[in-house]
Amino acid sequence: MNSLILNAAAVAVLIAMGLALARTLLGPTVHDRILAVNSFGTKTVLLIALLGALAGRADYLDVALLYALINFIATVALMKYSRSKELSRPDPEQSP
Asked: Is 0.85 topped by the overall pTM?
């Protein structure tokens, strides 16, 4: 029974990943695309955790956590880059 539920959840996550991929390709703005990529990354973390539960291997959760951290940092960097076109320059709207 648990395996059936986990398989159904994995299929649902795959469908949601497909929808996020469609949003990434269709846009309409750069920010929408970046957030869709972030959503795709979050769903990838869920899928890795589900596959770990199906395989009975807890070490998959470590991989999922690492991927979540990389996804978060990449999203913040992409948003900053899309705003100022440079990663090292401070944001002009956040002056002290």
From this structure: no
